[in-house]
## 1
Amino acid sequence: MTTTHELFPYFRFKDTGAAIRFYCEAFGATERFRLTEPSGRIGHAEVQLGPTAVLMLSDEFPEFGITVPASTESLGPSIHLHVDDTDAFAARAVAAGATLVTPPTDQFYGERSCRLVDPFGYVWLVGSSIETLTPDEMQRRYTALFD
């Protein structure tokens, strides 16, 4: 059996350069590198968020079946970022062009969190710890929501 060492979300875009600029401005990401074809199409790029999180990106490659969905209403899985200050992070992202779907709110599971959609249709869940809870306490609070 092999061991998984890292997980890299890989997003596809019609304009990866615009996505890189957005993530750097909105999320404070740093571009690690990009591989660009002579035509300008980006074959692979990486941005780093914080000390260890890496997001991989590329333009579409329809000739290989790699495309952006026709609708940006739902692009599949969400990415959860754990940050120091949810409110400040959300304000910065919105100022850069993200849409705030759910404002920063204290949650039963010990986080202050919000939900954003970036200009490319990807959903980002952003949270910061406000208290440390056991799974049993989270379950108790979760159950209480339904009473």
## 2
Amino acid sequence: MFVGKIIGTVVATRKDPKLEGRKLLIVRPLDEHMKPQNDYLVAVDTVSAGYHEQVLVVKGSSARMAFGMKDCPVDSAIIGIVDNFVIEDTQGNSR
């Protein structure tokens, strides 16, 4: 699981029938400092996330375990919207 930021959408008029009605979003992973990485992926939205929101993403078999994804041909799924986060350093200081 990782945190990412939604940066766009994918429109696919022809796709696997099990993906009909599903929103496909482009997610840019964030590193441990919440800085964007130089990578992108397409994820199925299971939580009605929106543009520029920070989200929780799972990949692989975990994506197929997300709500409504059983037996769907997905490799990544958005399973949560991040409201807030706290990162503590080794001395217990938050940032």
